[in-house]
Amino acid sequence: MVGGFRWIGLIVATMIGAGYASGREIWEFFGHESGLAILLFTIMFIVSCSVILTISYEMKSENYLPVLQTLVGKRFANVYDWGILLYLFTMLFVMISGSGATVNMFELPYSIGVVLIITLLLAVIPYGMDGILSINRFLLPMLIVGLAVVLIVFIFQEKVPLLYHYVEQSNWASSIPFTSLNVVPLIAVIGAIGKEIKSKKEIYVASIGSGLVLGFISYMYNISLIHVSDQLFFYEIPLFAILNGYPVQMFFIMTVLLWFAIYTTAITSLFGLIARVKGYFKMNKGMVGVVLILAALPFTLVGFSNLISYLYPLYGIVNIYVLAMILLFPIIRRANERQI
Predict the structure, then answer these.
(1) Which of 50, 26, 24 lies closest to 306, judged by CA?
(2) CATH topology for 2-333?
(3) Domain residue extents for the chain
(4) Which of 77, 95, 118, 305 fits as disulfide partner to 68, beta carbons 3.0 to 4.6 Å?
């Protein structure tokens, strides 16, 4: 049970990155008539976690590549391996843009947020990942708890209906790209912990627990955003529409936590990129980091909400094949065992 709860924390932290925590990812895929979509996402997510963790446990894997190869075959694994590289680069410039949008809420120029995060990204490169991951392990639980508290208080204060148009559920299909968007980073993270899983009970606890937590937060977030949907046009980060009217202290705390979520997402993406491409450059990792940030900088001019609007659905569609292979894996395995 203890091991299972440990993995719940890892899985939820992987999912609740800056795009999710800001509300922009939720609103992009869900919105009105999405109760069934969130239920389907919860079910598919539980199954996906269970399959990935089981393969990782059986293979005692230390990185995600063997798990990815088992799911989609070596040929497609190479394609999606490069896809992960592209995904990390995308996350880098989306998060730089997100920093500008967050700082902008304090009526400071967008460019200050961009310069701030780039400066801190460059400053942390020589020190490696250990320091930032330690901060991440401390701040992400605070962000998750704070987000849950804000949503619950908002729903009760504003008397938000818990069932929005429960008869009309036309948006159910959005559950597929939303789940597929998140399974590849999920493989990258939990596909590397196979040697640390002690028993299959941990897998059941982690899969069901994380699915229920994320399903609950996603639903609460979605109905809150529906309630303020007429204001979302004015906010690049939808969470701020919910925080509007809260005490300034709560607004400040959640903004700082969100900014740190953006920063840690950016730094983990940057380090992942540096580790993968440094062999192609005859430079030290600091200079490789500078090159990558400079390459990402022009894309930040598009804006945080626009980047998520275009790129997240695209990645959701591209990753549908991986999701399908994960969901079909237990059936294919059972059929192969019967043939033997």
Answers:
(1) 24
(2) Hydantoin permease (1.10.4160)
(3) 2-333
(4) 77
- The contacts of residue 20 (CB under 8 Å, 6+ apart) are 26
DSSP state of 167: S
Helix (H) or strand (E) holding 44: helix 35-59
- Count of beta carbons in the 10 Å neighbourhood of residue 127: 9
Which DSSP category does 112 fall into? H
Residue bearing tokens 């429960």:
166
Among 27, 94, 20, 118, CA closest to 302: 94
* CB atoms near residue 155 (< 10 Å): 17
- How far is Cα 210 from Cα 204, in angstroms, rounded to an integer? 10
**Pair of tokens at residue 246:** 């809260």
DSSP type of residue 169: -
The one-letter code for the residue type at 233 is: F
- CB distance 201 to 1 below 8 Å: yes
Along the 340 residues of the chain, how does pLDDT read in single tens digits?
A: 666 777 787 788 777 766 788 888 899 899 888 889 999 999 999 999 999 989 988 888 777 778 888 888 888 888 887 887 888 888 888 888 888 888 887 888 888 989 999 998 888 777 665 555 566 667 777 878 888 888 888 888 888 888 766 667 788 899 999 999 888 778 877 777 777 888 888 889 889 998 998 999 999 999 999 988 888 888 878 888 888 877 888 888 888 888 887 887 788 778 777 776 776 777 777 788 888 888 888 888 877 777 778 888 888 888 899 899 999 988 888 877 776 6
DSSP H helical ranges for 168-277 = 175-190, 200-227, 239-243, 248-277
